[in-house]
Amino acid sequence: QVQLVESGGGLVQPGGSLRLSCAASGSIFWVYDMGWYRQAPGKQRELVARITVGGATNYGDSVKGRFTISRDNAKNMLYLQMNSLKPEDTAVYYCNDVGMRLKWGPGTQVTVSS
């Protein structure tokens, strides 16, 4: 069973940057197409970025051009570089496979505010 732990969130001013990390335990991480999800208060969890096993990426319209997803299969790590952050990016961010079949981690809070 793959376990996921997200980190790297925090409080940042609009226009700032953060880099989120997702550590996955278990040796089969590399078989999954992975994604970063976020959930803002009162809203449903949404997929904002995804990456295939081979490294192909896809982004939601709201983050396209500002966020970059990457992975290191050898280290069982998933990353999300977030630039030009906006207040509407405030949410708890989670990683999971694109089918949401893995157990959810605790998430990491990102707050964008002046």
Q: What does this protein look like?
A:
This protein has about 110 residues and is mainly beta. Helices cover about 0% and strands about 45% of the residues. The protein is built from no helices and 10 strands. The protein has a 6-stranded mixed β-sheet with strand order 2-10-9-4-5-6, with no helix packed on it. The protein has a 4-stranded antiparallel β-sheet with strand order 1-3-8-7, with no helix packed on it. It is globular, with a radius of gyration of 13 Å. It starts with a strand and ends with a strand. The model has no long low-confidence stretch (mean pLDDT about 95).
Summarize the entry for a quick read.
This protein has 114 residues and is mostly beta strands.
What is the total tally of β strands? 10
Helix-strand pattern, N to C? EEEEEEEEEE
State mean pLDDT (0 to 100 scale). Answer: 95
Structural class: mainly beta
Beta-sheet strand percentage? over 45%
Task: Tell me roughly what share of residues is in helical segments.
Answer: under 10%
- Rounded Rg: 13 Å
The poorly predicted ranges are none
**Side-by-side strand order of the widest sheet:** 2-10-9-4-5-6
